[in-house]
Write a structure and sequence with these properties.
11 strands, 8-stranded mixed β-sheet, 17% strand, alpha/beta, Methyltransferase, methyltransferase activity, 16 helices, WH_DNA-bd_sf, COMT-like, 356 residues, 3-stranded antiparallel β-sheet, transferase
Length: 356
């Protein structure tokens, strides 16, 4: 066998391995879900512990628990030191709700049946362009959240965890110090705005969201000592936004909606914008052509395209290219200027828009 034959065979094996890993992706996700719900990471801890003790504390069957722990070790979340003896890896520690960078709520939400069931109808959404969630549940996603308060709490917690890296990176990616007032449109529990206000003491802010979205915001502001510098306003950004701020900030808002709906939201920001102000959009910006270096193992850039499909099946929105953002902004009377990648919060970018 020649070197060329060996290389071709190796490449073929790698290709097959990739397809197999992707096909097993939903199983890996449910493994994470089981680990979170059984509190595996909390029960194992950093010090090696026997599977038998974990099973007792989790109220689970020993052999099945051991198999779950070994699957988690195979995924790099636990380490098996000797047969049936496990500890948590630094990556696995992110599944501990007590970890400062915990992703437990995020994993719980994105493996939630309410999210996953619509994905079973991806083919139908691609064929029709219709939102699968609406036909599966008989209502749209955000109405479903409003009707199920316990799910709304989970969603808010997941969004708070998802925004944590951006809350650290964003305050230093833009000169907020030139301005005095900022409104976070669809700001949820206030994590992002708290990061901005903490880094820029001269700013005062407003978190604007639905009543459900603001449920946890007072706790966030109190935790950061921002009660006197930040107000809460409940409302509907499809009707209006609070007037008079110099900055209107939106993270992961526009991608939930169609282009026409995005134009409506942006138009309300444009109408309320103080002279000389800015609209700041924080979202992934897709390249015009998929980068061939995008990691096919569902990380980095690859996850953004999966997010795009998630918008299709669950809410009807989309991820956008720079041209797409320029188009919806132009229709709303705004002009896109700088687009700044947030390297420490990839794949997000900061899109700065001004009134035309």
């Amino acid at each position: 066998m020649t070197n060329t034959d060996v290389q071709a065979q190796t490449a073929g094996t790698a290709d097959r391995d990739l397809i197999v890993r992707l096909a097993f992706g939903s199983m890996a996700a449910q493994t994470l879900r089981a680990a979170v719900r059984l509190r595996v990471v909390e029960l194992v801890g950093e010090t090696p512990r026997r599977a038998a003790a974990v099973a007792v504390d989790a109220g689970a069957e020993l052999q099945a628990t051991t198999r779950l722990l070994r699957a988690l070790a195979g995924l790099g979340l636990l380490r098996e030191h000797d047969p049936g003896h496990f500890s948590v890896t630094p990556t696995g520690a992110l599944l501990d709700p007590g970890h400062p960078d915990s992703l437990t709520a995020f994993v719980g939400m994105f493996t939630e049946p309410a999210i996953v069931r619509a994905w079973e109808h991806l083919e139908s959404s691609v064929r029709t362009g219709e939102v699968a969630f609406d036909s599966v549940f008989g209502t749209d996603f955000f109405s479903h959240l409003a009707q199920h308060p316990e799910l709304s709490v989970k969603f808010n917690a997941a969004m708070s965890q998802a925004v944590s890296e951006t809350a650290v990176a964003l305050p230093y990616a833009f000169d907020f110090g030139r301005f005095a007032t900022v409104t976070d449109v669809g700001g949820g529990d206030g994590t992002l705005l708290a990061g901005v206000l903490t880094a820029h003491p001269g700013l005062t802010g407003t978190v604007f969201d639905t009543a459900e979205g603001l449920a946890e915001t007072p706790k966030t502001l109190a935790r950061h000592g921002l009660e006197r510098r930040c107000s809460l306003i409940a409302g509907d950004f499809f009707c209006s936004v609070p007037e008079g701020s110099e900055l209107y900030l939106m993270k992961s808002v526009l991608h939930d909606w169609t282009d026409d709906q995005a134009v409506t939201i942006l138009s309300h920001c444009r109408e309320a914008l103080a002279p000389g102000g800015r609209v700041l959009i924080v979202e992934p910006v897709l390249p015009e052509v998929v980068d061939p270096s995008t990691d096919a193992d569902v990380t980095d850039g690859g996850v953004t395209y999966l997010s795009d499909l998630n918008m299709l099946v669950n809410v009807g929105g989309r991820e956008r290219t720079r041209k797409d953002f320029e188009d919806v902004c132009r229709r709303a009377g705004l002009s896109v200027g700088a687009v700044i990648p947030l390297a420490e919060a990839a794949p997000y970018s900061l899109i700065e828009a001004t009134a035309e």
